[in-house]
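ok trying this again, last paste got cut off
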Amino acid sequence: MGLKQLNKNNILFILSILMLLIYTNGVNAEGYYADVDISVDTSGFVTITGTTNYPDLLTDSTEIYSSKDQSFWLLNITKNEVFSNYIYTITFPKGTSINYIKSEGTFRIGGHEEHLIIDGFAENNNLSVIVQYQIDKYDEGSVSNALNMNLGLIITISLFIILFIVVYFKYPDKKKSSEMFEDDMLKGLNQRQKDIMNILINNSAPLTQSDIQREIGIPKASVSRNIQRLEFKGLIEKEQTGMSNLIRLKEK
């Protein structure tokens, strides 16, 4: 009878340990999140900025995530731990072309000012982004062709520039001043925050958080975190209307 009781106690003890391990792993997995901007330069150096509670993910100019084989570069950012949610934006140098990409969750490839950009996000998954890419060589022929423009066109352009400068300094351009003010507002913001600011700038009426989330197409938690940061920086303000918060640019 004592032996049976001992075996029963051992089994209960082992089951308790297993349940504790499963619970601990579940808590750790659910606790990780990331909302990051990843920048890759022509030499393969990677800079990661943004918000995350994963240790040592944010970094400045590191080579640990990239390698090169002849003309092919490989970007590999992989973390084996499970993230409850993560979102990323990768910006590549000008002239980049992608040969292969593998990423958990969903992603899309776009561009901005000749830079190739990948946006992606996932929930309850490993953080894993693998991209093989190439960077085109600088085309010296285009410079040569530009220098060989005919003289008449050069003179015309020069006269136009002179006329523009004279008019610009004589009659200040209010629209230009407004654009410069908007550029100053966006300095020091990450890509998500810039997207939110641009949406508010381009809409004359205040928007709800749901409106902004639909425009950007990212998780609600990420939108909420970035709106809180913009409010803390004094760039936006909220107005309670019924069950919703209206969000607008803060008047200066």
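PB: full thing came through this time. The helical segments are 2-31, 140-147, 151-170, 174-186, 191-202, 209-216, 220-232.
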